Records
---
Amino acid sequence: MYKLPENIDPAELAQIQGTEGTFLHPIQDADGNWVISDQEWHSAEFQHLKQEYPELAAGFTQIEFKPIIYKFE
């Protein structure tokens, strides 16, 4: 997973549409990090964003995803 930089709003990122019509889908992990999946990061559909905004793209860091575990009693 790739952690969003602090200056990127997950709600705004979710409004970005790729070249084939897919929207990005940021999610939050157990540590409160907002991330996008490896599949989204490496998708050909979103590669143009890295070229258009290299400074922003450089702020994404790969991290280990820690899922939120819900316990129902």
---
Amino acid sequence: MPVKYLNSSGEKLDKIASAIKSVDPDIIGLQEVKGSAQAKSLADALGFNYVYVSHGDSRLEWGLAVLSRFTIVEYQQEVIHHDDKKPRVALVCTIDLNNSSITVVNVHYALGDYDKQVKETMRIVGDITGPTLLMGDLNLIDPEDGLTPIRTEFIDTCEAVDTKGSREAKQRGTFRFGSKRIDYIFVDPEYFTVLDVGLTPEEHREPSDHLAYFACVTVKDRTK
């Protein structure tokens, strides 16, 4: 929905927090977050750590957040769309998973200029070593050719398994007012195994115009 309509009411945030709790996640990527206060409110409701970055839009304050039950060691923002009217950044953060770490890249693509945004995203992940998760609202309908560079390096978690959850996500999509799958979680196949994916339960699909998509993945033991 247009960001100017983002609702910061306690009731709305409570419903979002309940939707998140319904799938008991360890790491959460949020887009269209209306300021750091909104991110903090959700993190506090979940008992999670959080980081927030702004897209730098002069017209309004909004951006991206990552929440995690684990320690967020560091984070930074990287510009992926250089349009003054539709600025976009990626939130890149390192999360400590019990003495090992992963990097999470959270993005929200502007409509149009997909090739450039994908190129900037791949530039960012190209500089990362170790286990990497790429997630966000890409505003691209599967299977857009524009995602080919990402698919070359990462696995689309929804395509990695054939489960009830993956079949529903493909058929239903992640946009509440249609059947478009525009929200993704990609993982580096060298480091991750995908176990299952899905959408939040029916009773938790009202708080947003997107249906929350989740993936259950494990980090491979590469010491064997």
---
Amino acid sequence: MKTGKTFADLAIGMSVAIENTVSEQDVIDFARVSGDHNPLHMDEDYARTTQFKGRIAHGALSASYISAILGNDLPGPGAVFMELNLKFVRPVRIGDTVTSTAEVIEMIERGYRVRLAVKGEVDGKVAMKGEALVMVPSGLAE
């Protein structure tokens, strides 16, 4: 079983980036799991009549890529997601490859919490950006 980083393992500036290409099936599956069947995501004819001129992926689907980094890599297994603040800057479309990044920007010893700058980019342009706060195991002998 993979183990995550502890507070003692982490340092400001550590970062991880992952890539995900949004597929039609991802959008369908996310709608099914979340219950969000907004026609902006599901109906091309409807979506063409909007300011986006076509379907876009759920913002929360893009945000879930940040969750994947935090739960799998930085800090990884054992981390507890406490807070996420995201601003969505531009839409993500089916077929886009999202490069999601999390970087440690603050270490809070009390409670063993870590604040990370997070973002998602498509073709080098920011689609979402913000911060996450996670609690991690101390790494100290109990």
